[in-house]
Specification:
This protein is of the alpha+beta class. Helices cover about 20% and strands about 30% of the residues. It has seven helices and 17 strands. Pfam families: Transglut_core. Keywords: Signal. This is Transglutaminase domain-containing protein. InterPro entries: Papain-like_cys_pep_sf (IPR038765), Transglutaminase-like (IPR002931).
Length: about 300
Amino acid sequence: MSKPHFVHVFVVLVLISCLVLAGCGTSAGDSKEPPDYSPLQVLVPKAPGKKVVGNSPLTLDISNITQGYLTAVADSARQKVNVQLTADGGTTYSYFIQPGETAVIPFTDGSGTYQICCYQQIDGTQYAALFAENLDVQLDNEFLPFLYPNQYVNFSPESKASKLALSIVSEGTSDIDALQAIYNYVISHVTYDYELAESVDSDYLPDVDQTLETGKGICFDYAALTAAMLRSRDIPCKLQIGYAGTVKHAWISIYIRSRGWVDKAVEFSGNSWSRMDPTFDSNSKEDASIRQYIGDDENYTVQFTR
């Protein structure tokens, strides 16, 4: 995989691919609507080991696939592993896991059959096959993959991002007002990191709390932080990875209970939605051309959803 190239719209656009999906909790009811949690809660993935496939150096805990995820555990001492999920639609999602680490991997295409192929690094970009498995996934609720944390949108109840989201948005706040508050916080407190954009590795993963602490990030960081905060507020959010024009980029899509899925947009004017890409918009206060770019659907192409 070649190293991503970044530039910031009309100047030096931004980084890496990213794509988000929808998900929700575990309460019963209409699976075509997100579950309602009262009080609000940050969903926590679990790996109880009741049902697993594979063995050392890679084990997949599939005990909770109805919740929209599996947990991959890499116990290799030195070599990383690769998990590839191919959904019914043909899209293959690839996840690299470092030695000794655990990763939550979402079923972003929803219910259906997934072919899972697992590999271990031999040297550099060379990998050897470990095992393959077909999983029939039936989600308890179609929004669950977009409410839980995963390897790309990584947070927990103890995360600063989660606590911040719950502190700035009260229990009874509407989805639209919660979205506005979180979105406005991110674009007001995070600036684009040009230095990181020039040096970032192809296997870079965002750290939402680090983005908050440093106040800097690339498009991947903007989108992951916004997604983490929204999911912490039980608002389904997709991390989208693809292209802005010809440049690798990341942004978000969100689900508003009164409106449905809002693709590539996070601001509601009262009658219509306007795209407010978290990265571009944070730099668009004095550049009308950037805001116009944000509003043009043809400038965005989705590759993956996380």
